Each structure stands twice: as C-alpha cells, then as structure tokens.
Amino acid sequence: MGQIRLNEVSKSFGDVEVIRPLDLEISDGEFVVFVGPSGCGKSTLLRLIAGLEDVTSGRIEIDGADATAVPPAKRRLAMVFQSYALYPHMSVRKNIAFPLRMAGLGKDEQMRKVEAAAKTLNLTEYLDRRPRQLSGGQRQRVAIGRAIVRDPTAFLFDEPLSNLDAALRVNMRLEISELHQNLETTMVYVTHDQVEAMTMAEKIVVLQEGVIEQVGSPMELYSAPRNRFVAGFIGSPTMNFANGEKAAGHGAHSIGIRPEHLSISTTDGAWRGTVGVAEHLGSDTYLYVHLADGQGTFTVRAGGEYGASHGDTVYLTPDPAKIHRFDAAGLRIE
Amino acid sequence: MARNVTPARKATMTAIAWIIGLAIFFPILWTILTSFKTEAEAIASPPSFVLFDWTLENFSIVQERSDYFRHFLNSVIISVGSTVLGLIIAIPAAWSMAFVPTKRTKHVLMWMLSTKMLPPVGVLVPIYLIFRDAGLLDTQAGLVIVLTLINLPIIIWMLYTYFKEIPVEILEAARMDGATLRSEILYVLTPMAVPGIASTLLLNIILAWNEAFWTLNLTAAKAAPLTAFIAAYSSPEGLFYAKLSAASTLAIAPILVMGWFSQRQLVRGLTFGAVK
Amino acid sequence: MPTQHSRVKARLMISPAVLLLLGWMLIPLGLTVYFSLLRYNLLMPGMEQWTGLTNYRYFLTDPAFFDALRNTLVLVVGVLAITVIGGVLLALLLDQPIWGQGIVRVLVIAPFFIMPTVSALVWKNMFMNPVSGLFAHAAKGLGLEPFDFLAHAPLFSIILMVSWQWLPFATLILLTALQSLDSEQLEASEMDGANYVNRFFFIVLPHLARAITVVILIQTIFLLSIFAEILVTTTGGPGTATTNLTFLIYAQSLLHFDVGGGAAGGIIAIILANIVAIFLMRMIGKNLDA
Predict the structure, then answer these.
(1) How far is CA A233 from CA A183, A196, A215, A258, C148, in A?
(2) Looking at the DSSP assignment, which residues form a beta bridge with residue A24?
(3) Which of C72, C83, C107 is best to mutate for the B interface (most B CBs within 10 A)?
(4) Which of A198, A232, A266 delimits the end of a domain?
(5) Which of A24, A231, C104, C246 would bridge with A6, disulfide CB 3.0–4.6 Å?
(6) Does this model's pTM top 0.80?
(7) Domain end position, chosen among A204, A232, A260
(8) Same domain? A139 vs A204
(9) ipTM, 2 decimals?
(10) Partner-chain contact B274 C211, CB within 8 Å
C-alpha cells in the first residue's frame, strides 16, 4: 500500500506562506511528479510528506492513517536526496544496510537484502567502497539502494538527477522509470525540469508560489493547460504567446501556440517576420522569428534540413486546432 | 601555478626562517639540554652547548624529591577527565545549535563564550569556599569539575563549527532511514565528526594540562598536577638550574610531543572555524 | 526549518550545558557580590559584618588599583601588538618556498604547548637572571654590564615571556589564513600593476582581517587573566610594577585574607572585563558569521 492524502495542508516560514492550503491525493503505486520553477514550494511539499517539516495547518494521511504528527523515522517512507546524503564514513554495503540495521533486522537478513538490492542496481562490485570513491551515477544508485531495501510505503525523490551530467541524467531517468515498473510502489518525485516530469510521470502536479496550478497526466497538461502559467511551463521550447489583435481574432485576451504547431513558408502565411537566429539541432531546426508587427519573437520548429538564416523573411501560420485561448485572468477558454 | 623561485632567494628565505625558528625554539632546547648537565656545568660561564658530561642524575633527583609521577598522573587524570566530561556535555549541545538553530542560537553561543571572559579571580573566593565546604579542595574530582566548566564554552563552540559543516541532509536521511535521535548522533554524526572531535579533544587536553590559575589555587599536595609541581621550583630551590630544567622537561614533554603530532588539526579548531 | 519534534529534543539536549554554565556563572557571582558587601577576613572567622560599599570605596581609591589597571592594559596591548605584528611577518616568511618548512613550523609552534609556570621559570632563571642567566653571559661576552630584567624592566620582561608563548598561536593561525588566499587574486592584482607593498596592503592584509580578529579575541580572553607568570616570577613586584588586576585581587583575598576587599575587586574586574567583552563580541560577532 502507498496511498497519500493531503488535506488543506499549508506551510509558512514566519510570515511567508510557502504552501497555501492545498488538497492532493496520490494513489497507491502511482508515479507523481511535482514540478515548478525554483521557490515554488515543491521541495517543501515533499519534505512535509516526509515529516522533515511540520505542517502549519492541515492533515497528512498515509494509507488512511493520520500521519501529521508522526516523526519521519516512523512514516515508513524512503527518500532520495538531491545531494544523495550518503553516509561518508560507511561502505556502500553499510550505507544500504543502515535502514535495516535501524529496523533491528538480523545481520544475515540485512546482508541478504543488501546483496539483492545491489544486484538490481548493478552495485555488487562496489559494495566495499566508500561513497567518495564512486562516480555521481553510482552514488545515485547507492542512494536508491538505501531507499529500496526496506520496502517502504512510498519513495520520495528530491531533485535526484540535478547533480548529474546530461547524458547520465537520461540514463538514470530510464532506470528510475524501470524501477517503478518493477516495484509498483508509489513514487513522489520533485524536479524543476519539465522534461523529467513529462517523461517519467503518470501524474504531474504543477506548482507555482505555493499553489497547485494543475494536476493531470503529461498529455493532459500538454494539450489542455489550465492557464497560461502551465501552458508556458510545460513543453519545450516554450509556447509562443500573443496578445492584442492576433488574440482578438480568436475571441481571446491572449492566445498561445506551440513552436511545433506553426507552419513556416517563405512566400505567404498569417504572420510575417524575419529570422533572428536559426538553431540547427540536426533532427530539428528552431527558428527565432521577429514578427514584423513588432509584437515579439516567436519560436518555430522546422524540419532538420530546413535552410534558413539570419535576416530571411518568413511567414508563419498556426494550426487552428492547436491554438490555446486564454482570458484576461490567464485562464483557459474552452 | 607557482612560478619558479631563484635558488638564491629560496636559500636566503630558508636561512632567515631557520634562524628565527631556532631562536623561538631555543629556550625549550636550552632547558632540555640543561636538564642533562650537572649543576656546576649548568651555571658555567661560558656555557657549553653539547660538549658536557651528559647525566640522567637530575631526573632521578627530581622524581625522588617532588614525586613527578604522582603529579604527572594527576595532570593526566585532570586534563583527560575534564575534556571527556566536557565532550559528553558538549556534543548534544552542539548538535542542538548546529542542526536545530533558532533565533537565539547565536546569542547563546556568544553568552557561552563570554563566560570565558569573566576573570576567574572574580569568583576565586566563592569557589574556594564552596570547594572547602564540599571537601573538594585538593581533589582530582574538584579540578575535573572546574576545568570542565571553564573549557566547556570552547569545546561547544569548536564542535559547533565542525558540526555546521556536516550537511543536514545526511542527518535527515538517517531520520528517513528510521534512526532515532540516539542512533543519529551515535552512528551518523559522531563518526562523521571524528576529525573535529579529535582536534577539540587534543586542544582541550592541552589547555587543561597548562591551566595554571585554578590548578594552583585549588590544590595543595594530593591532587596537584604538573603546574603546581613546577611552581614549587620558584622557591630558592629553583636556583639549581639543572634540576629546574629536568623538572621542566618532564612537565612539558608529554604535551609538547602530543602538540607536535596534532598541530595541523589544532589550528583549525583554534580559529573556531573562522579560518579554513 | 526543524520540526516541533526536533525542537523539543534540541532544547533538552542543550539544557545540561546551559544550566551548568549558568550555575557556574551565577552562583559564584552572587556569592562574590554578597562577600563584597561584607567585612570578611579569613583570619577573623565569625566576625563578618555588613559594610555596604566600603570595600568598593577602599578598593577603588587604592593607588594599587590604578597601577594594576594600567599594568593589565599595558600587558594585554603590548602582547597583542607584538604577537599580531610578529605573527603577520612570521607568517609571510613561512609562506615563502623554503627548505624544511615543516620542521620550522614545528619549531615555531612549540612555545604554545609550554605550561605558563615552566615558561616563566625558565625565562626568569635561565635567561633573565642577572648573574647566571644566558643573557648575562651574552652581555659579559660582549663586554657589557648584565641587565637585571626583572628588577629594572619587570613589566616589559613579563610581556616578553608572554609574547613568546602566544606568538606561535598568532603565527600559525595567520599562516593558515594566508595559505587560503586565492593565488589568482594575487596574480590578478599583479597584472593590474600592484607591487609587493601594494599587494600586501590591498589584498593580503584585508584577507587576514578575519584571522587577526580571531587572534585578538582568543588572546584577550587568556591575557586578561594572566596569573601564573606573575606568581612565579615577580609576585607582582617590585612594588606594584607587575601587579595586574588578577594578581591584585588574588593578593587581596588569599595573601591578605581580605575576602570582602578581594570580592569587591573581583566585581570591578568582572565589570571591566564585560566592557571589553561587549566590545570584542561586537567585533567578532560580525566576523565569525558566514
């Protein structure tokens, strides 16, 4: 079991309200990602669930039981920290065994479970090393190993990949996803990287300034963002926004269109502009087009072979079905 | 990268540094040398540096006359005892201040350090009288208590600066792993802080070993440590240079050796973490 | 921010230390204040009598008090000046590339480990003694009249002894600070055309400020209560030439058995030390942060 329910949970540090009262339900076995810009309260929310911070008001239930006042050691949750937080004076073996030792398991039992976890994580040959003798990715795996050995109710991940280099990050992303598929345990994962959120989550929780902006599956968030913030935050490169005339034509205060939903032509189209910068990625080409009416710069995704360069005049046309419309308050108009 | 230095410049600097170093060390060297001389050679003019009849006689006379070993044992018991007791009180306190800081933490630390600034002489008489009435005068226990209290602020502050360098996340990880406070301190914090705890231990043993206000004023004979053993030589007896030197050598040797071995760790501890 | 749970534990864990230090501070302090208002002489037990502020008046009008105050100040400031300036110079020297740096370090730090009673006795007898001290031998060797240090320049002699003990401490801390100076900063200033003197005053010295503060703070704590060096060399004399506050109060209470007068002196010393402490704490508080 691994069901977590937050009920009217809020958190203030002094006068600053970091989390405004919010409700959230995480079902058993779900992979939930909290995503948002730095300072949005996503890590604080995770630490509230972990019990490393007290809630200012509200109630946290784990598997139906009130856990609001339960100390972290007794919540049966496991956490992987951004810095990995490995015990530097212990070998990998002892690091992974630590939670079992705290739980009072017998030596043999401890070792059996450690060996099993090490096998899953490809750590067997490193068991007798100290954390500082390991690479970033290996440390990450030890931290995960320490979390999985004792079959927790749920796993909490606090930006676990942010200290790894880009290539390793993609690998670990896959490993964690695979782990989730094998264990089928609830995972709550915090990141500021929307790519991680989109690729790993079953359910994304977008936070901004202590408020949940939207909860939904990655595709829901991509295709039907509830407001301009979510629209701008999810998707890469980010959505283009236009106000005024262009929006009024669609009966909205502002409209948004993703770079991949604009078609480009050198002869005619809805909006004229000149290419500022062309980024050739090989598979795709991103064009940053300065609009002729002076209403800003749009990003457009073109094919990998698209040959355009600085100063070229181009015409952009949005796919009408993919235009997102927002009212004056920034909320989505269906 | 450092640039090359001309050998001439390096040689000059080396010479100056060695001359100054030897000059600073000279009084100690001279004392050690004199302790191996006979009394006549010790006051001979001009004095000889190494070409004298080396003798161990002074050491046995000093041991016989003032019982070096008893004083040595008292010094060990008092300095180690007060430091260990201090650590036992200070580790939890430093944990609190480093990992559960409040608005008052800094004031509490400052206040603790300020108790070190109270001139001990201001409270000498009351302590003397309390000790007299409690039967603690001239006892090892009494000195252990006093030295624990006077060095406690320094022990706490040193540990605090070491603890503050340990990331809270590691202690939080222990909490998530199901560790109680006791396990957290015993199995995670303390092993991680071993270098810091060791240098705190060393520095405080040295400070307690050399403490010469309370040890002189609160002991007479039974519990007197080496500071008192030496002070006895300030009487005219002390004019026997070779014996004075032998006694001095015996009093400083243990701590000098210990200090040399641990000098690197000591520096950091002494600066309360202000200089890395 | 810590949880309620850990805050409760934290308060429990810190209380033994706080209570002990509070007791150590308040109980003797209270007694000292009480004694200072009594006529209380150890030679006349049972004759204690309430005298109000008489002890204070007596102590504050005693010319010895002002001598002691001046001597304390000269001692502290003198030693601080010698050790800080000497320490900076020595640290700069030891920071140069030299052969056997480790050994020189060991030589230089040694006096710090020497017990004050030992150092005082060795200096007094084996070096400063006007008949058979090493300085006297040296003077005679050069055809000069031996100088009786402790008789003719007693306070200066004590400053010298104490500086010898504390110079290593200052040197070592300043050296450590110096070695932590980012060499790129120096190289950048060199590129900017700064010569050695400029580099010292604009880059090195500001970098050492923190370390110097620490040296001053810690040394002041210990220097204010210098006792053993005076006890075993001059016992405060000749006259009151080397009597500092600590020694004056010690003499009053335990040599003249005047507990009341000594206690009044103690309270005055505490008040003065507090003034110094507040001043130092302000300075260090700013510097120790971060």
Answers:
(1) 30, 13, 13, 12, 84
(2) A6
(3) C107
(4) A232
(5) A24
(6) yes
(7) A232
(8) yes
(9) 0.83
(10) yes
